[in-house]
Structure formats: C-alpha cells, structure tokens
Amino acid sequence: MHRNTALLIVDMQMEMANVTASGRQRANPEAEDKTAALAAAFRAAGLPVVHVLHDDPRPASKFRRDLPSGRPMPCAIPQEGEAVLWKTGSSGFVDTGLAEHLREAGVSRLVILGGVAAFCVNSTARSAANLGFEVNVVEDALIAFDLPARKGGMLDAEVVLEVTLSALHAGFGRVLPAAEVLEELADLPPA
Asked: Residue 91 — very low, low, confident or very high, per pLDDT cuts 50/70/90?
C-alpha cells in the first residue's frame, strides 16, 4: 500500500439495503461490514476516503439524493472533510470531477468497493483504469444482485459477481479480498 492510495466507495446507498430487505438474491451478505472496516482503516491510516453516490435523473428512481433511499448506508456515511460526488450515470468519473479531485490530491491508486458490482462499480473501475489509475477492487465488499438473463430466467448473484470480477481482473486491475487490503494498510509506513 502506498500513500497515493484512496478508498473509493461507490453507491452504498439505502436503496441497496431496501432491495436486500425485499428478499432479492444477493452475493456478499457481509459487504456492509467489510465496507465499514475498510473505511475505518483508511481513515486511521490517514488515507483519503472518497464517496460517489447515484442521483438518477429519472423521477421514478429510488437512487436520488432528495429521497431517504438515496442517502448513504450506515456503513458508508461520509465523515467531515471527505469528498462526496454525485453522479447521474453509471461511471463515477463521468461529469463528476472525480478524476480531477483525485489527481489534485495526489491519488494514483484506488481501492474500490460498493454497489452494484455489475453496474456502477464495474463502470467506475473500468473508467479509472482507462484514465490511468491503478485499480484494486475489493471482491467481498461489493453488493451484487441476481440479474435477468437476456434470453430469459435469472442469473444467480454469485455468478453475476464472478463474471464481473473475472472481467475486471482480466483487463482492468487487481481483485482482492478485504483482508488483504487491511494487511497492506497495516504494513503502511507512518506519514
């Protein structure tokens, strides 16, 4: 782990908890606990924690900043001084100023977690890699739901997560468990 690293928390909003509570099939039931542990460890190490949240322009969406469902989950509440950026599309880098914010802060390496793995996390991680950031995706700190298959039926949440992570690993960055990130943080020399 290097001091040029930031934790990027993507879309950990209350609607994720609402969908989970509705009974929808989901991978990584401990993602919220892993998110909270990683955020605490980054803060303790004096490394930046950056939040990207979804503000869908569609009136029917539950992912809107003016709704309770659009607020951050308890595991990902921004602390004073942490950057909070709102996006209206899938990637956290489109029209948010995220790349500029990270570069101004001297960040070139990202540890990314959040939801939903196959959509906004995937888009954000790919954009980060395309922009030259070193990408690390925390496999067990991602929310992944089942997905309607294009030819009918449903794709299992674990399958959706594995395909997403395999694609990211193959061409966009490193995929690792939260425990490994925490070990790297423990080995970080003091500032």
From this structure: very high
